[in-house]
Specification:
The complex is a heterotrimer of chains A (about 775), B (about 160) and C (about 300).
Chain A: H1 23-28, E1 44-50, E2 56-62, H2 64-68, E3 72-77, E4 99-100, E5 106-112, H3 115-124, E6 126-131, H4 138-141, E7 170-178, H5 181-186, E8 190-198, E9 210-215, E10 221-225, H6 230-241, E11 248-252, H7 268-275, E12 283-286, H8 289-294, E13 301-310, E14 316-328, H9 334-343, E15 353-362, H10 376-393, H11 398-405, H12 424-434, E16 448-459, E17 469-475, E18 481-485, H13 494-506, E19 513-515, E20 519-520, H14 535-562, E21 569-572, E22 575-578, E23 584-586, H15 590-593, E24 595-596, E25 603-604, E26 609-614, E27 637-648, E28 654-664, H16 671-690, E29 696-697, E30 700-701, E31 720-726, H17 748-760, H18 771-781
Parallel strand pairs in A: 1-12, 10-11, 14-15, 18-19, 28-31
Antiparallel strand pairs in A: 1-5, 2-4, 2-6, 3-5, 7-15, 8-13, 9-10, 9-12, 11-20, 13-14, 16-27, 17-18, 17-26, 21-22, 22-23, 24-25, 27-28, 29-30
Helix pairs in contact in A: 6-7, 10-17, 13-14
Chain B: E1 3-10, E2 13-20, H1 25-32, E3 51-54, E4 57-60, E5 73-75, H2 88-95, H3 105-118, H4 124-131, H5 142-154
Parallel strand pairs in B: 1-5
Antiparallel strand pairs in B: 1-2, 3-4, 3-5
Chain C: E1 12-14, H1 19-28, E2 33-36, H2 40-47, E3 55-58, E4 68-71, E5 75-79, H3 84-89, H4 97-104, H5 109-112, H6 117-123, H7 131-136, E6 140-145, E7 148-153, E8 158-160, E9 163-164, E10 171-177, E11 185-191, E12 202-210, E13 218-225, H8 235-243, H9 248-261, H10 272-295
Parallel strand pairs in C: 1-3, 2-3
Antiparallel strand pairs in C: 4-5, 5-10, 6-7, 6-10, 8-9, 11-12, 12-13
Helix pairs in contact in C: 8-9, 9-10
């Protein structure tokens, strides 16, 4: 920790690109991830017996041979854990009980003294399953002909903003009925309609899921996990075991990439289940890369049919938007992604008449969970393309078309919420300028075609209306500051941003602030989850309030000692200074020991502790039948992306010449970290758009490895990947900030598809936009022979 | 299953370890020698998170048996800094902002160091080729590539 | 369902002292014993449960496996223990440009620190990038078996999917690539999903040389990876290139003949239809580029 006496620190760090807090540990290999924690010889290793059948009734499970294998200490099955769990919809159990619903579902688990023994024991578990007709297509799944996957849907617990349709596979049907779509379409000069299919993809964090659980002598359970949601996990473990939250402790160190898949609870429950019967021995469960691909959360597939119309002047008048989300075997989290698909269904467009049906459908596919963007990559994949088609059809410049229809502050959006000010026009202008969008450029060779695409997106944090944050700020004898939070450092840089916020609010140098880690639900203040691009805004507000609370305590203490009004005092660079008397005193020592009264007549003050919380209080529910309400969400982050590409007509391969992404972040607390999020998000979006697809055949993933599920490497980058931002302040964000974590990957599928169309005149609309698909589409269209 | 006693030099230290036939170098480093900076990302030689140097050459330590390194020299991420001084590739990856979640970082840095050892002034394409086996899901790679070029310029 | 083992399943590591012992051990314990060198393919297939050896026999210490030499008469010999990176870095290997280009295209640098050309051949992956080059250079395998040393030409070595002429106890020690024709040019074009490091959707090995015995004055060796269980040689395309004046039209005809001759399958990397078109387009590209090199 730097010392203010010897080294000048960074004062007023908000808005400055200070160095990340966590880098020394991370570049030296010293940073501890969950798999790095030593547990000694008592550690048991867990492995999971999984279903090889997509849908079926469990007729028999025989674990006797596994139990008899030397070294096996625990075998658990669904019989042991009957409670229904789930984040939004309680529709799953830790292990399948009477029915399996996807290939890869946990049926039983073993803990043994080595991973090899556990693996052998798994093979010794005998399971008989009677196959049932299965559902592998969401649209079919929503129909009356589909076999029911959850006959008990009517009895599942869920919050009042989720609308299951009992007797069907539809676990949430979110509706928008705004204006009069039917009448509005009659007034349209042009109507475009297209159906899109977005496949399942996987998050692919480089660190696979891992959890270690141990039961303490008093029955309390401690879980170490690579987690985006220690507090939500605590709650879920408690429900799974039927105990109260205080009996559970979750410790979550650094996370080796999450992107949503380490939010909520998945395989961690298996470690807890095994540990609950291991006699106090810790149990580690670690997914193999192959298991990571299909047994845990995936990004669910989407079938979306879009019909959008505009008048002759290019004003979009109406949209009909039908979505079938392939929620998989459990939609505990997916129901809320569907809801997001619904209340964002207009995209960032001002459309007066909208009819939306967003349906979450049970299928016999892997379970859908949160993935960076929370449905917005999939939704915008279609909207961005249909808007492009409309602009072309009426012969309007694409940039002009977007600007004419882009949502603005004061508009009443798709759910009837009055929009806060947004800088979307500026984002579009910046992309168009940087990409030279209006100029058709020449390809670099006769066998190549060049093209550009553009599109706009929006996304609001998708969360319960009352997702809360809290923070504590403590000062130490040396004047340094320790900040406790419950949000997680998953690579995005949140600890760094929180330290900047605390330093700025307190009046100390950035270098004087440390963030306490790992997050430990026993000691850390509550945080709902590290998801939804919400931490800079929500946890940032809590940290700012905590720092301001500490500051207030300090100023009151010093004011009393000096006989001054606290309003005349300030904290600057670790010193309390009086603007009146020009006196100053270092924070050192006084923030712990207080200040002696003159003449040894007692003491003033004492240890300084600041507390801050934040919870949005203004989010209202939406009407079940119309999806209308006063304020559906806290705010929207908007942005624009443009891509300039070349296509090799001999292979169909895309080369990205330049990508430009501009988002309105309200206020960049750390501009360099904002740019890093935008750059990295673009590459993840590009990777999913070009390469990625879980190839599911009858519920079986055919490519669960890095050999067959390719992601972008160093060799697949655009020549230029430009990241920029604009700053239209958010009224309740710290210094105006709002989130940017997820958004950069959400436009890429649609924008790339538009660029492909511009280059070769063929619309390849469904990702992955692979070389093969492009080539065969060109072949079919006669572009090549 | 057979066990073997091996002698191996790791980050300059002589170690004697008893390993089973099926123990990979990755497991030996993490479990027997408590060098947990080397990460397990796929156990199939595809992601590069477990990259270490074997006699100066980068290898996927999940694709090497521990018993095979008897008498050899290993350098892990823990051995990259010397005398409390970060290696130049560590410094530049910090400066360029090439670290996010950090899970790929150790393998990435070993690949980068090995590249500069065999080719002190690589072209951008040579950096790309040298790091193509190190997957990163956070950064989008360009800052990492820039950091290796910056390290080359400064050394 | 794919259910990969978290680590490597149990086996016994065996490091034989000499060739005789090694061959005998492998013969006695066939098929439970497997020879291995780099292990990059063997370990992956063991995790997947595709190989289940009781013994893994490390051949890297055996006599003749560590050779990497050029001989003006015999050509280039590459031992079974020589990883691909060493071949690429071996200055004299540049006389075999097709081989170097193919070797450089395999996976990643760190994998090539272990992966070997002999391993590529013995495991006979249809996507084996270096096999086509070894065929084009008319490689000969140097083998030690229970009856002592022997040689086998690579051409004809593969007898079917996953099958070859090796007998129990046979250890491929090295491959010798004879001195290549003077002034030849080579090109390996690998089409993967990623620009680098992927397995090939198709891989085109092409070698061309001026040859006064043919009508065209040129002779071409072609081999195509990932379209058949073993690298496919499009004989008719080679004939067209030998028997007709070499111009754009001839190359198009040859490329079409290659396309017509391959019968690839659909798999997760690409469809049969796409593969066929890529064979045509990339054979065309490879031959055209070689012609440019030869006439330069």
């Amino acid at each position: 920790m730097a010392n203010t006496d010897t080294k000048p620190g960074t004062m007023n760090p908000v808005g400055k690109s200070v160095q990340r807090l966590d880098v020394m540990e991370k570049v030296t290999g010293a940073a501890h991830y969950t798999d790095d924690i030593p547990f000694g010889n008592a550690l048991l290793y867990g492995r999971v017996k999984r279903s090889t059948v997509a849908h079926g009734l469990i007729k028999r499970i025989d674990v006797s041979k596994a139990k008899a294998l030397p070294g096996v200490k625990v075998v658990v099955t669904g019989e042991d854990f009957p409670n229904l769990i789930g984040l939004y919809l309680k529709d799953k159990t830790v292990f399948a009980r009477d029915r399996v619903r996807f290939v890869g579902e946990a049926i039983a688990a073993v803990a043994a003294t080595s991973e090899e023994i556990a693996e052998k024991a798994i093979d010794l578990i005998e399971v008989d399953i009677e196959p049932l007709p299965a559902v592998f297509d969401a649209e079919f799944g929503a129909s009356k002909d589909a076999p029911l996957i959850h006959p008990d849907l009517a009895n599942y617990e869920c919050p009042n903003f989720i609308f299951p349709v009992p007797g069907t596979n539809i676990s949430n049907h979110f509706k928008i009925r705004k204006g009069n779509t039917e009448e509005a379409f009659k007034k349209c000069a042009v109507i475009m309609e297209k159906k899109f299919r977005v496949p399942h993809v996987q998050h692919v964090p480089i660190e696979p899921h891992i959890a270690v659980a141990q039961v303490e002598p008093d029955g309390d359970v401690t879980v170490w996990a690579a987690s985006q949601s220690p507090f939500s996990q605590r709650s879920s473990f408690a429900k799974a075991l039927g105990v109260s939250e205080s009996k559970i402790r979750v410790i979550a160190g650094y996370v080796g990439g999450g992107f949503g898949c380490k939010a909520g609870v998945t395989m961690e429950n298996v470690a807890v289940a095994l540990a609950s019967k291991s006699g106090g021995r810790p149990v580690k469960v670690r997914l193999t890369r192959e298991e990571e691909f299909f047994t845990n959360f995936v990004r669910q597939g989407l079938i979306i049919n879009l019909k959008i119309g505009c008048d002759a002047q290019g004003n979009v008048l109406a949209m009909e938007n039908n979505q079938w989300w392939d929620g998989g075997a459990s939609t505990e989290y997916g129901v809320n992604i569907t809801r997001a698909g619904g209340y964002n269904s207009s995209g960032p467009f001002d459309i007066p008449n909208i009819t939306t049906n967003a349906m979450c459908v049970y299928t016999n596919h892997p379970i859908g969970g949160a993935y960076r963007g929370f449905g917005m990559s999939e939704l915008h994949a279609g909207i961005i393309q249909v808007m492009d088609m409309l602009a072309e059809k009426i012969g309007m410049d694409k940039v002009e078309f977007l600007k004419r229809n882009a949502i603005q502050g004061g508009d009443f959006n798709v759910t009837g919420m009055k929009m806060h000010p947004v800088g979307l026009q500026e984002c579009i202008d910046k992309v168009a300028k940087e990409l030279n969008f209006s100029v058709k450029e020449k390809a670099s060779s006769p066998t190549k075609r060049r093209g550009k695409g553009i599109g706009i997106v929006w996304k609001a944090p998708s969360m319960p209306p009352n997702a809360g944050s809290s923070a504590e700020v403590r000062l130490n004898e040396d004047g340094s500051v320790t900040v406790s939070v419950g949000g997680q450092e998953i690579g995005q840089g949140t600890f760094t941003v929180m330290a900047q916020i605390a330093a700025e609010a307190l009046g100390v140098a950035y270098e004087m602030v440390k963030i306490e880690g790992p997050v430990d639900t026993r000691y850390s203040p509550y945080e709902w989850q590290t998801v939804a691009s919400r931490l800079t805004w929500s946890m940032g507000n809590a940290v700012r309030r905590a720092a301001e609370d500490a500051r207030k305590n300090i100023l009151e203490m010093v004011a009393e000692a000096w006989g001054e009004n606290p309003a005349n005092l300030d904290i600057k660079n670790g010193y309390v200074v009086s603007m009146k008397s020009e006196e100053s005193i270092s924070l050192k020592n006084i923030v712990v020991y207080g200040i002696p009264r003159p003449g040894d007549q007692g003491w003033i003050g004492g240890p300084v502790l600041g507390r801050g919380t934040f919870m949005p209080s203004y989010v209202t529910n939406l009407d079940k039948d119309t999806g209308q309400g006063a304020r559906a969400v806290v705010h929207y982050t908007t942005g624009c992306q443009g891509i300039d590409i070349e296509i090799d007509t001999e292979t169909g391969k895309i080369e990205i010449i330049k990508a430009v992404s501009v988002f309105d972040v309200g206020k960049a607390i750390n501009p360099d970290l904002v740019k890093a999020q935008i750059e990295g998000g673009f590459i993840q979006g590009m990777s999913s758009a070009i390469f990625e697809e879980m190839k599911l055949v009858n519920g079986v993933m055919k490519n669960p490895s890095f050999v067959d599920y390719r992601i972008a490497t160093t060799a697949d980058l655009p020549r230029e990947n430009i990241a920029m931002f604009v700053e239209t302040a958010q009224d309740d964000g710290p210094w105006g900030a709002r989130g940017i974590g997820e958004h950069p990957m959400t436009p890429t599928i649609g924008v790339l598809a538009n660029a492909i169309y511009d280059a070769v005149g063929v619309r390849v609309s469904n990702p992955p936009l692979s070389a093969e698909k492009i080539y065969l589409a060109m072949l079919e269209a006669g572009v090549v022979s | 299953m057979g066990f073997h006693q091996i002698s191996v030099k790791v980050n300059g230290n002589d170690e004697v370890v008893t390993v089973s036939s099926n123990m990979t170098l990755l497991r030996m480093l993490r479990e027997s020698l408590a060098l947990t900076g080397t990460k397990n990302g796929c156990a199939a030689g595809e992601c590069g998170a477990c990259t270490v140097m074997l006699n100066g050459e980068p290898v996927n330590s999940c694709m090497v048996l521990a018993v095979e390194v008897d008498g050899q020299e290993i350098t892990t991420i823990e051995g990259l800094a010397k005398d409390g001084q970060l290696d130049i590739v560590q410094k530049t990856i910090i400066e360029k902002g090439g670290v996010q979640c950090g899970f790929c970082t150790p393998g990435m840095l070993i690949s980068a160091r090995a590249l500069l050892n065999r080719n002190p002034h690589p072209t951008e394409e040579q950096v790309v080729e040298a790091l193509v086996g190190n997957l990163c899901r956070c950064t989008g790679y360009s800052r990492i590539i820039e950091s290796v070029q910056a390290a080359a310029e400064r050394s | 369902m794919t259910s990969a083992h978290p680590g490597l399943p149990e086996f016994d590591y065996v490091k034989p002292a000499g060739l005789k012992e090694a061959s005998q051990f492998l013969a006695q314990h066939a098929p439970e014993a497997r020879p291995f060198s780099g292990g990059t393919d063997t370990f992956v297939r063991m995790r997947d449960g595709f190989f289940n050896p009781k013994y893994l026999v490390d051949v890297k210490g055996l006599e003749g496996t560590r050779v990497l030499k050029i001989d003006e008469k015999e050509g280039l010999t590459i031992g079974a223990a020589i990883p691909m990176n060493r071949v690429v870095a071996f200055a004299e290997a540049s006389r075999y440009p097709l081989l170097v280009e193919a070797a450089k295209s395999v996976a990643s640098y760190q994998l090539r620190s272990r992966a070997t050309i002999i391993g590529n051949i013995c495991n006979a992956s249809p996507a084996g990038d270096t096999i086509g080059a070894c065929l084009a250079y008319q490689g000969v395998l140097n083998i030690h078996g229970v009856d002592g040393p022997k040689t086998l030409p690579l051409n004809g070595f593969f007898t079917g999917p996953g099958k070859n002429l090796l007998k129990p106890g046979d250890i491929v020690l090295s491959i010798t690539l004879p001195v290549p024709p003077k002034g030849h040019a080579g090109r390996y074009i690998k089409l993967g999903r990623n620009r680098l490091s992927d397995l090939s959707i198709v891989g085109i090995s092409a070698m061309g040389v001026k040859d006064s015995s043919t009508k065209s004055g040129y002779k071409f060796h072609l081999a195509i990876a990932s379209v058949a269980p073993v690298p496919f040689i499009p004989a008719k395309a080679e004939e067209i290139l030998a028997n007709n004046a070499l111009n754009t039209e001839t190359i198009i005809l040859a490329a079409q003949a290659a396309m017509d001759a391959v019968t690839p399958i659909d798999d997760v990397r690409g469809s049969a239809q796409y593969r066929k078109f890529m064979v045509r387009n990339l054979v065309n590209r490879a031959v055209t580029e070689i012609m440019q090199k030869l006439s330069a």
